[in-house]
User: What shape does this take?
Amino acid sequence: MNNSGVLRMAVVGCGYFGEKHADIIGQLSNAELVAVCDKNWEAAKRLAQRTSCKAYEDIEEMLAKEQLDAVSIAVSETFHLDAVRPVAKAGKHILLEKPIARNTEEALEIVRLAEENQIRLMVGHVLKWDGRYQYTAEAIARGDLGEVISMYLKRSSTNGTVKRLHGKISMFHYMGVHDFEAMLTFAEPARPVKAYAQWVGKKNVPYNGKDTVFNTITFDNGIVACIQLCWALPEGSLDFVACAEVVGTKGASYIDVKDQGLSIYREEASGISRAHLLAGILRTCTWQAERRNQSFCEKYPER
Assistant: This one.
């Protein structure tokens, strides 16, 4: 970090998400985009030219030549560990696109590298910046819903996703991370103590993938949660479905991503009250990513 308090950052991976990261970093008042890096040299050059920074094809070369404070890694999860290793060993803080890795072993190794090299590692989940999920978490913390009894979270998409990935990563790691993170946030400070999963594989067998998975999680305070993941919607149908329901002893919260809404129901002396919240709490995915990246920069520890 220079004397002006600006975080000098680079982006590794110049695809769709890398471009988003680069654009957002360039807009932040407390960060400066110094360089971008991609094995696809043409992609790196195009993004560097558009964002007025330097382009690199090799991570090691970029780390050696540039004075960086942190690196945003937005390559495919298949290459997360390979990208994290040199950056962590160089002592640079990391903002890592979700999911953290394609399997548990690689995730644990990434965490080990961060701890061993004493760097800050932030995985780029975005639901905590979604107004609907934020409001629900705040309502739970205030006690508006009473004591949480159960949670149900669902995320479904067409099998176009599994065709594209073709077994490179599971539903849990690719899209389930959103709902598992939300579930853990809603349940705080309770922790899961038991989990059971049941999957079905018929439609997506040719693509080395599952169709749907139901996950049941029990927490140490008695909360029961169910997360349903599906990659089997017909292409050209709904395309994407996501919802979250939290039921408490005094009320309930229901998020429907499709209709862009959040409803809070509360038991009162006069009966059931319902608040349907829309304007003022919803933001685009880009806005959520902006808040995530801003948070990373604000929490950067001076050394």
